[in-house]
């Protein structure tokens, strides 16, 4: 009788018992780890010539992990940061397996020795006040989408919020009366209070008057009423920067992202 494959049960226990219940990991962490394992299993299945359901724990060797990380960085043209995030998800699983199933500790130890990759630290890109003003002037505020983009970029500049923190913003997290402030929920579900300028609060009020939202609904939504995604904001910002660079040429040499507004 063929021995059963314990790998599916271990992977399920890792996500359901370890990450969700014991570690109480955020939904963003769980989704990131899930994506890594989906990509890794597909990669190994393609190299082995079988389906994902036939993969065993022994198939996920240190050499396969290294090959996957190389593919993620070079084959998919990912960054070193993305490569290290993938490795963190894989390491976490094998640390869990080493504790739960010690008979596989030798394989786990080999995978856990795969090192993180150092990356060069570039000088941060910062914007001069005139450059910020030029970018903020680009959205067409006569349209609801242009007004939304102007308010979002203004909020980022004022609050120093991460892009996802800003996109998660709901009316109930804003104190519209003095002293003006906003409650932000960041990475690791950390909570902080950030003061707001009166000008920013006035912009938020005008947007909500034009596009009312319930107290627990996200403020920044697309034309269909669905929450904006970070990739969409980056795309729109790139277009605004390109237009602003025609007025302020110094923007042409800068890599401007939502993070630059912090």
In short:
Helix content is 53%, strand content 5%. With 262 residues, it is mainly alpha-helical.
Structure, described:
- By secondary structure, the chain is mostly helical.
- It folds into two domains: 7-112; 129-261, hpI Integrase, Chain A, CATH 1.10.443.
- The chain has helices spanning 7-22, 27-48, 62-75, 80-100, 105-112, 129-136, 144-159, 163-167, 198-210, 230-244, and strands spanning 174-175, 181-185, 191-195.
- A three-stranded antiparallel sheet has the order 1-2-3, with no helix packed on it.
- α2 (27-48) crosses α4 (80-100) and α7 (144-159) runs antiparallel to α9.
| CATH class type of the largest domain | Mainly Alpha
CATH superfamily of the largest domain: Intergrase catalytic core
Estimated radius of gyration: 23 Å
Q: What is the number of beta strands? A: 3
Task: From the 3D structure, determine the CATH topology of the largest domain.
Answer: hpI Integrase, Chain A
Taking pLDDT < 50 over at least 5 consecutive residues as the criterion, the unreliable ranges are none
Number of helices: 10
Shape label: elongated
CATH architecture of the largest domain: Orthogonal Bundle
* Assembly form of the protein: single chain
Q: What order do the helices and strands follow?
A: HHHHHHHHEEEHH
**Largest β sheet strand count, sense and barrel closure:** 3 strands, antiparallel
Helix content: 40-55%
Identify the notable features of this structure and list them briefly.
10 helices, 53% helix, 262 residues, mainly alpha, three-stranded antiparallel β-sheet, 2 domains, hpI Integrase, Chain A
């Amino acid at each position: 009788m063929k021995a059963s494959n314990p790998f599916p049960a271990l992977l399920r226990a890792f996500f359901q018992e370890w990450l969700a219940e014991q570690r109480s990991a955020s939904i963003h962490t769980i989704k990131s780890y899930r994506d890594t394992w989906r990509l890794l299993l597909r990669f190994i299945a393609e190299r082995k010539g079988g389906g994902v359901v036939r993969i065993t724990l022994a198939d996920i060797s240190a050499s396969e992990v290294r090959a996957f990380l190389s593919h993620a960085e070079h084959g998919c043209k990912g960054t070193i940061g993305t490569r290290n995030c993938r490795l963190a998800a894989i390491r976490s699983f094998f640390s869990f397996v080493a504790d739960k199933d010690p008979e596989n500790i030798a394989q786990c130890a080999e995978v856990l020795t795969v090192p993180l990759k150092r990356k060069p630290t570039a000088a941060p890109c910062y914007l001069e006040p005139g450059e910020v003003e030029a970018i903020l002037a680009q959205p067409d505020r006569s349209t609801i989408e242009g007004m939304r983009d102007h308010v979002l970029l203004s909020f980022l500049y004022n609050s120093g919020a991460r892009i996802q923190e800003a996109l998660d913003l709901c009316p109930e997290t804003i104190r519209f009366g003095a002293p003006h402030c906003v409650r932000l929920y960041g990475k690791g579900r950390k909570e902080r209070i950030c003061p707001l300028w009166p000008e920013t609060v006035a912009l938020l009020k005008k947007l909500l008057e034009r596009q009312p939202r319930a107290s627990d609904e996200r403020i920044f939504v697309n034309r269909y009423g669905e929450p904006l995604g970070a990739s969409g904001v980056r795309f729109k910002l790139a277009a605004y920067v390109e237009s602003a660079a025609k007025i302020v040429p110094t923007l042409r040499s800068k890599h401007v992202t939502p993070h630059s507004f912090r």
